[in-house]
Amino acid sequence: MEALPRETIVDVLEDRLRTDILDGRHPAGSYLPPERRLADGYGVTRTTLKHAFGRLAQAGLLETRHGVGTRVRDYARLGGADLLPMLVRHDSGWVREVFEVRRGVGASIAERAAERGTRPQRAELGALLAALPRAEDADAVQLADVEVHRALARATGNRVYVLLTNTLFNAYLPVRSLLKGPFTDPEAAHRRLAPVVEAVTVGDARRAREAADTYLRETERIMLEGLA
């Protein structure tokens, strides 16, 4: 059986349009050329163009007004954190900014988890941490590490922390293969994260915050070295 193509023409067009928008070829606030001219320029049908427009509108880059046209949204002013995965894939420079936020949010989460975590939540953290050394490769270790941080966010009892954690991980998980440095050695990954979980487990909020800050800075340093 012949394998299906991995990308459709709509996928390719969406990527081209997104790149042109993020590179400034279609500036924020400007209207795109008329559909027929734009479709001819990209060598596609108007139906294909409409499908790509729909995806980019859903992503928050375009807005279409009937009888007026399709305009590029000012995503820097109006967009939300849900745009981060797309922006990181387009420009790896966003990763550093994601990590800066990750440090601040992660330290606060560890502190709150130590203050508020329940006994079952602390037991769950211990079990998830114990899974790290058993992960079979760097990707599996990284994903196991992510689950520990999701559990820390849940232990705060604050659902906004949970959503922020999801957002930050979603931002760089698509490029995680470039950020696997801290996770190539499962035992070392376990040793780095263990002080955070231990401090949360005993309810020491100050130590949990400090341990999280140390962990986040160290893993960030290793990941950015690999990215460079």
UniProtKB/TrEMBL annotation:
Name the Pfam families for this protein: FCD (PF07729), GntR (PF00392)
The record's SMART domains line, in alphabetical order, gives: FCD, HTH_GNTR
Write the signal peptide boundaries. Answer: none
| Keyword Oxidoreductase listed | no
The chain positions of domain HTH gntR-type read: 7-75
Gene3D superfamilies registered for this protein in UniProt: GntR ligand-binding domain-like, Winged helix-like DNA-binding domain superfamily/Winged helix DNA-binding domain
**Keyword terms of this UniProt record:** DNA-binding, Transcription, Transcription regulation
Q: Which InterPro entries match?
A: GntR_C, TF_FadR/GntR_C, Tscrpt_reg_HTH_GntR, WH-like_DNA-bd_sf, WH_DNA-bd_sf
Which domain of life does the UniProt lineage start with? Bacteria
Q: Does the keyword DNA-binding apply?
A: yes
GO MF entry, a single one? DNA-binding transcription factor activity
Q: What is this protein called?
A: FadR family transcriptional regulator
What is the scientific name of the source organism?
Streptomyces triticiradicis
